[in-house]
Amino acid sequence: MDICIPLSNALIIGDWEKANGILDLDSRNLLDYSISENKQTPLHIAAMSKSIKTVQNLVHRMTEQQLGFQDKDGDTALHDVAKAGNVDMANAMVEKCPRLLTIRRKRDGLPIHIAARYGKRNMVFYLYDKHKTMEGNGLTSHDVHKVFYKCIGADLFDCALLILNDNKLSGFPRREWAHDVLYTLAPKTYAFNDTKSWKITWTPLAKRKSVATILLKEIWDNILKSSSRDEIKDILNGPTITNGNKEKTYPFRMLFVAAEMGNTRFLIELIRGYPDVAFKVNNDNQTIFNIAVSHRHEGIYNLLYEMGSMYDIMSVEPDRHGNKMLHLAGMKAASPLKDVSGAAFQMQRELLWFEEVKSKVPLHSREKENKAGHTPRQLFIENHQNMVSDGEKWMKDTASQCMVVAALITTVVFAAAFTFPGGYDENGLPIFLKDGPFIGFIIFDAVSLIFLQLLSLCSYPSLLLVTLTKISEHHYQTN
Prior knowledge:
Layout: H1 4-13, H2 16-25, H3 42-47, H4 52-61, H5 64-67, H6 77-84, H7 87-96, H8 111-117, H9 121-133, H10 141-153, H11 157-166, H12 175-185, H13 211-226, H14 229-237, E1 241-243, E2 246-248, H15 253-261, H16 264-273, H17 288-295, H18 298-301, H19 310-315, H20 325-330, H21 343-360, H22 376-383, H23 385-417, H24 436-468, H25 473-478
Antiparallel strand pairs: 1-2
Helix pairs in contact: 1-2, 4-7, 6-7, 6-8, 8-9, 8-10, 10-11, 10-12, 11-13, 12-13, 12-14, 12-15, 13-16, 15-17, 21-23, 23-24
């Protein structure tokens, strides 16, 4: 303890002179011993510091065998450095002992897996490059797929694209990994924000696609080229999920996750390569377009316009509860309307959604009841009663506040209009009355007062009307 604690403290703060002195004075070779409860060696401790010089000096004193020592979790010092993403420290270790790249820990495997898991882009690039220069590269097919998968999970799409391009000829990714890879990409809407206009038909929509879009297209193309129709269906379906003693399937779950999250670009790329994707249904007999209507994702919903007569068919197809697309539009949004503030504007958005879907639904289907006996209009009224009330309260409160502000402004301007700069003489006339600029001031002051009165005459009645009127559904549509 008298030696280990001072040595650990010196290594953590990067005091190489003190650490080196302790190592020199002790008769034992402390580099062969663990100096912590977790069986960490001095190099493990130094790897947690920010001192590159300390690590480089320690590595210089150590043998290859000492560099490969593992702690209680099976981590070498390179695993620890991979977590932190310090490439200079990693380079000092790997240059002296390349086999560190292939030493596995108890979980997550190799250092490159750790770097990918923690999202250390530069470290992944460095370690992957070092693996490629090794004889046999030290990576099994499983290792490569695991790095690839973890890179996607950590949003390291450029790293994943490099790995994909290096392994194209080997049918990458393999079918047992394909579902997990696509499923990981499905909810990452933010990664595919390369364009605001979406079309299924092939047109150059953006000058520069996001890396995630390029990666997805390459993955999907490889899957389509190397898989049969049944295999593609299995990939889209995914494995059966076991919950206790029960097994449950979620048909084409990745498609509906993407639809719920509004990942339009993800769905477009899949539909372009495999149009049947647009017609897949979940356990509730809903398509991705039903989900898009429920969650108010206009990008996905608008894709229906490109499908011609299929819109008429899909819009009237009932789900498990007898709800058609217009019924779903009549229900409250499944996802909060985060981009709309204020209950009144949210209600207006909901009403516009309903009317938009209604305008495209065949006339004979607009008043059809679901299994519970509700028409779309009835569902809309029932589900939005609270929103109508909240919107009414919001508008009246806002109108009242505007009236108070308008009254204050009117009072201040009115007082200012009859207060002249410079004061008055003994006859009660403004001192600057005979000055030219003062005449201009009087004119502009009078004009501003007149305009303010006209504005008040126009605004006060409308604001007062809002505070006194009972707000109903049609007000949100007409205003």
